[in-house]
């Protein structure tokens, strides 16, 4: 580029600088040298690179406000930035949009775009989704860290009732907080299993007894065990409701609705048994009680509160509605087609089991799902061929959407583990930074800490979040000493 002297930048401070469209701008970003032209950069005048065209007229103060270093001999601007991210940002001037390459951290790339003064509206839509996903992950990590900090810290300004409320909520909602809380969580888990087993054992005729009218009812011992379990579930729900920080959100939560459905049938049945006979016939009361007792199966869903695997499975199914709908559509089309073909092909046989197309739906369902009870089966050759084809199509239709559902489950499960580990890592870094600041043993000297700019006024409550923001960096760079506050041109090239 030595022969391009006529089109290169003039000396700093000269008033006759030709900031024209044919001007050459030489930049060195992280050791990668690039020659750009004024007509290219002037397409987006609000960016940092476009400001380099007229920066020499303002002297060295203006130059160093835009770059890290400048070589007057080579007339070259030096930037201590990520060269890979710069290769993506420079695409804006050629193609009108920015595309983030694979392997670059979305948050770091956003910081690079902010440095080069490139608006996020120029970022491609597919890259915006990655940025939004990463931002949600960081917000989730910050939320988990905040919850842990809230648990560790105690506000002395709060009243006794508020502190007691927090302790009860922490005791019941966070088993990992203490050993007694873990014991209570295990006990609640065992009582859910016991109540479910009791509900099943109550239907065994050998374990039932006859009442005064000769009807079979549950054994009194099983009823007592179930009453004790329901009493525990009721006490647990009421304590969690009273200690909840947001009672409306608590009442409308899905898992808490499941808790209500698990204990409500017991009290409704108890009310109908003692008071319903006065308002309606005894037969109707018994039928209503029997229907309510069926709702006791909802208590098995309480296990999801104590099992992260069940919660992950629920989320995976929730995220896989499209794949599940596709599976149901495949099966519905196949059931309709093969049941109609089976009915038509079996009409020639005198002892056909296919009486109608709606009745053939049952045969098509158990065949395509590879169950095959054998209560309905084809007897003609064409009917057997149709059954074989429906079986193969059913296997393919079921297998195709299963892989995305499994991927969603694995992705969410791994993501939760990563977020949990990242939250603990952030806390460890915050504790390490706090101890380092207290002892004056950071990467630089004690004087470096004194030279750091103070926190803005009115943001005392954000000190932990500022430490969190510092600890998010992938690599830790020690503080520079007083003699090395700025990188030299050789260090930039390295």
TrEMBL record:
Any one biological process term the GO annotation gives: protein homooligomerization
Pfam families, A to Z: BTB_2, Ion_trans
GO MF annotation list: voltage-gated potassium channel activity
Gene3D superfamilies, alphabetized: 1.10.287.70, Potassium Channel Kv1.1, Chain A (3.30.710.10), Voltage-gated potassium channels. Chain C (1.20.120.350)
Annotated Gene Ontology cellular component terms: voltage-gated potassium channel complex
Residue ranges annotated for the Ion transport domain, each copy included: 182-416
Subcellular location: Cell membrane
Major site of localization recorded for this protein: membrane
Keywords: Cell membrane, Ion channel, Ion transport, Membrane, Potassium, Potassium channel, Potassium transport, Transmembrane, Transmembrane helix, Transport, Voltage-gated channel
Region annotation Disordered: where it falls in the sequence: 1-20, 435-464
Membrane protein topology class: Multi-pass membrane protein
TM region(s), chain numbering: 183-204, 248-270, 324-341, 385-406
Potassium channel tetramerisation-type BTB domain location: 25-126
Subunit text: Heterotetramer with KCNB1 or KCNB2.
PANTHER family assigned: POTASSIUM VOLTAGE-GATED CHANNEL SUBFAMILY F MEMBER 1 (PTHR11537:SF171), VOLTAGE-GATED POTASSIUM CHANNEL (PTHR11537)
Role played: Regulatory alpha-subunit of the voltage-gated potassium (Kv) channel which, when coassembled with KCNB1 or KCNB2, can modulate their expression and their gating kinetics by acting on deactivation upon repolarization and inactivation during maintained depolarization. Accelerates inactivation but has relatively little effect on deactivation. Coexpression with KCNB1 or KCNB2 markedly slows inactivation.
Similarity comment: Belongs to the potassium channel family. F (TC 1.A.1.2) subfamily. Kv5.1/KCNF1 sub-subfamily.
Protein name: Voltage-gated potassium channel regulatory subunit KCNF1
Record lineage: Eukaryota, Metazoa, Chordata, Craniata, Vertebrata
């Amino acid at each position: 580029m030595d022969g391009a002297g006529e089109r290169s930048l003039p000396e700093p401070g000269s008033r006759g600088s030709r900031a024209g469209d044919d001007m050459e701008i030489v930049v060195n970003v992280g050791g990668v040298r690039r020659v750009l032209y004024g007509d290219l950069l002037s397409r987006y005048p609000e960016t940092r690179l476009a400001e380099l065209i007229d920066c020499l007229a303002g002297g060295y103060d203006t130059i160093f406000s835009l770059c890290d270093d400048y070589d007057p001999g080579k007339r070259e601007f030096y930037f201590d930035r990520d060269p890979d991210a710069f290769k993506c940002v420079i695409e804006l001037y050629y193609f009108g949009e920015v595309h983030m390459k694979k392997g670059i951290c979305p948050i770091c790339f956003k910081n690079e775009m902010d440095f080069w003064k490139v608006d996020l509206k120029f970022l491609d839509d597919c890259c915006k989704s990655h940025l939004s996903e990463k931002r949600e992950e960081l917000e989730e990590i910050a939320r988990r860290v905040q919850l842990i900090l809230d648990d560790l810290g105690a506000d002395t300004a709060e009243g006794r009732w508020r502190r007691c409320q927090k302790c009860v909520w922490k005791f019941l909602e966070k088993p990992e907080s203490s050993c007694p809380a873990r014991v209570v969580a295990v006990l609640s888990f065992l009582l859910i299993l016991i109540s479910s087993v009791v509900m099943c054992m109550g239907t065994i005729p050998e374990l039932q007894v006859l009442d005064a009218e000769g009807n079979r009812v549950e054994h009194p011992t099983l009823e007592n065990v179930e009453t004790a379990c329901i009493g525990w579930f009721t006490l647990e729900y009421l304590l969690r409701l009273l200690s909840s920080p947001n009672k409306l959100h608590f009442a409308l939560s899905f898992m808490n609705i499941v808790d209500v459905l698990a204990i409500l049938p017991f009290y409704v049945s108890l009310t109908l048994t003692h008071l319903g006979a006065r308002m309606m016939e005894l037969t109707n009361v018994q039928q209503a009680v029997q229907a309510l007792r069926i709702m006791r199966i909802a208590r098995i869903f309480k296990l999801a509160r104590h099992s992260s695997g069940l919660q992950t499975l629920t989320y995976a199914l929730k995220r896989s509605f499209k794949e599940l709908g596709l599976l149901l559509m495949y099966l519905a089309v196949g059931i309709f087609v093969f049941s109609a073909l089976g009915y038509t092909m079996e009409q020639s046989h005198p002892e056909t089991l296919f009486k109608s197309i709606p009745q053939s739906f049952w045969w098509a369902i158990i065949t395509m799902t590879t169950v095959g009870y054998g209560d309905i089966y084809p007897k003609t050759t064409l009917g057997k061929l149709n059954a074989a084809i429906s079986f193969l199509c059913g296997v393919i239709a079921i297998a195709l959407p299963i892989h995305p559902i499994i991927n969603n489950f694995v992705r969410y499960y791994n993501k939760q583990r990563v977020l949990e580990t990242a939250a603990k890592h952030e806390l460890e870094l915050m504790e390490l930074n706090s101890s380092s600041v207290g002892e004056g043993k950071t990467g630089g000297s004690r004087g470096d800490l004194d030279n750091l700019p103070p926190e803005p006024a009115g943001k005392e409550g954000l000190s932990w979040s500022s430490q969190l923001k510092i600890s998010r960096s992938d690599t830790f760079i020690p503080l520079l000493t007083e003699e090395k506050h700025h990188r030299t041109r050789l260090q930039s090239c390295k």
